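Recall the central idea of this unit: under ordinary conditions, the amino acid sequence of a chain determines the structure it adopts. In this exercise we apply that idea directly, starting from the sequence alone.
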Amino acid sequence: MTMKKKVLIAMSGGVDSSIAAHLLKNNGYDVIGVTFMLGNNKEDAIQSAKDNAKFLGIEHFVVNISSDFNDKVINYFTSSYLQGLTPNPCIQCNKHIKFPYLLKEADKLNIPFIATGHYVNVSNLFTLQKALDAKKDQSYFLYALDESTLKRVIFPIGGYLKKEIRSLAETLEIPASKRSESQEICFVEDNNYRQLLKQDVSYGPIKTLEGKIIGTHKGLFNYTIGQRKGLGIATGSPIYVIGMDNQSNALLVGPKDRALVNEFTIKTPHIVYKPKIIDTNSVLVKFRSTMKEVPCHIFPLDDDTWRIVFETPQWAPAKGQSAVFYETNGLVIGGGIIY
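Accordingly, the structure predicted from this sequence is:
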């Protein structure tokens, strides 16, 4: 009798991870589910994961990793904002928490494979490749995974459209089919990250790029590059956040065209897959998860710094966000943090 291959899947209690577990089971895997308690999980989400695992007839257990999550994700998130950066905590979580802990728990149980409900694929080169559903593709959030992880991970729903996954959940009448989509940042209530910071407001001047003071801001951490609404000033024409001067605690604003840039630099790039001549090839980049990739050129300045030059000016890249690079066939080259 042939032994089934075992796989450990992260289950959040939602539709995507639950259907991913279902697909794995249908493909002959011996599936075990794990839910990570992060300190912010609502009890109903953990219970939902348990209910879905029971419905599917698979083992399931819960692991409390809230302390490490707080240290490596929440503290990173808050400290970055207080430095005037715009961080992406999901990338940090995938790199330092979700996948390392999945591998750790899998190794404890001598399980060779791990899985999640992300919309992404792994190519036969053991690099990431965009999902079939372009609107749900999550490769941007996973660029920091290394080859050793990609050799063990399975993404069962990367070849499906979201509507197909939702339809399957409803047909199966799996408990998760009654749950709504999760919010963008799992540990921020109502996406109000300012409340999480619990920072005393350090008021300062709002200045034009010419140095004229035209208002007062309510703490630099309350703003991000490209922001238009919520500035509390009337200028007669649209005005946007262009930059922040942390030394003088000034918020810099100007017309929309001043938020267009021709280039930026990234630090400590992580390379998933390297084209033959990276500094002379035109590749694609996105520096916001929801944007469409645009052509650029990568010029390594040293081992830790890349200069990124756009073929056409781009709108408001924010320091602290990640820039992720793709080949035209959807393979992920890698990425790094804008500074």
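The radius of gyration is 22 Å.
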